[in-house]
Design a protein that fits this description.
about 525 residues, 8-stranded mixed sheet, 14 helices
Length: about 525
Amino acid sequence: MLTSDIAIVGAGPVGLLAALLLGQRGLSVALYERWPSFYPLPRACTIDHEAIRLLQGAGLADEFRPLIDPVIGPDRPYRFLDRSGETLLQIDWNRPGASGWAQANGFFQPDLERMLVRRLESLPNVQIFRGQELVALDQQPDGVALRFAAAQDERAPVPAKARYVVGADGARSKVRALLGIDRTDLGFSYEWLVVDVVPHEERLWHPYVVQHCDPARPTTLVNSGPGRRRWEFMRLPGETIEALNTPEAAWRLLAPWNITPGNATLERHAVYTFRGSWANRWQKDRVFLAGDAAHLMPPFLGQGLCSGMRDAMALSWRLAAVLRGGAPEALLASYGPERTDHVQEIIGQAVEMGRIICMLDAGEVAARDERMKAAIRNPALALKPPPEPRLGDGGAYRANDPNAGYLSVQGRVRRDGREGLFDDVVGTGWQLLLRSDADPAVLDSETLETIRRLGIVVAEFGPEGDTVDLDGSYAAWFDRLAADAVLVRPDFYVFGTSSPASVATLVASARKVLETGGSRV
């Protein structure tokens, strides 16, 4: 029987990233995928600044940078248009994100998966088993026994046991089904034809990302990686999926944009049902859900994969803390409450946007257009891009701190003669950022020992400090938080903030959470 620290079911990007993050933290990982071979066609096509920071932390930034198409600059707006082409809404996503990367980026999912697999293959403590379909889970006091069936005449199934299991096996999750976990559904359900195209010649697209809110046929255009474009066409009442999901229908719908078989390659067409839902539990004993197994959302915010990558990171640092750092199992219980509240807000926003886009009734469309155009004329009414939500209250960040649970920032810094993004220059893991030079009386011997034991990297931004804020990101952040010290967790979310005199208390709070598994302090 194969034994491992962690078994991951599902080798899509979420499962691959989780395997990499866990493997890099020294855990043994077995990754199981029911399909026998790699899927080479596009699926997810948008990745945000936070998700790229996760890849950066895993050492993949340089390899991934040429594979993305940033939606940034004044010539790359994201607009909603009415049936006549008049702007209903422009969302300010064509700007740098808080994590040091563009707010939104197009990419080709097979590129990401190949990159992750290459890195995984270099880790001796990670094994990948394809053609293995999960059929049973047996939770035991010291782990989980897994039973697989060979898929499509692959090699004999491997009986396995792991201390913990991560179900990252997609929307039709077998792990979720075996656990008997039900879902909350928001009642948003529309079929769309998704068409991926490779134009043969470079073309200037303006708007770069657009929602055509035309009741004759709601349509999305989006960049999907360097040299690629995606169209999404909503299925209309009375139209069958069989008639819509054909190459002929795809070319017919593409024709208004002068996309033809003579100047483009039709890479893929498929009908998807856009939904908004989440699992009502994300953990059952030693088994966890992540990615589409835990949540589904319409694609209008480009946050489906990004949310799954957050799940992977949120689980990975906790599992490593428990299995390698001596933290109690109780720390794992904070994963579900934190992530489900966070993703529910994003799902709600995506569904709200979808209801605007998918509107077909003439009277409702007219009222919508009038309301949205009025908001454009009155900046006070204009829809702003939503802030990154706060994590749910799971007990793994500081209580009664209004800054805790929010995403941290990453800017460019200089330290020891090196310049670059903070994580590359200073380091990842727990991060303690100080506005001014550290007072030796504040960082007493007990605090310094906790910093050493937890592997906290410290950056001092004062005049005599060791770190220089090259673009003013940190000065502005400290001002916005009204804080002089910020402690950031390994997943880049703020654990807590403090004044200079209370840094020792802040660090002690993190130590207590890791010692107790989530006591609020």
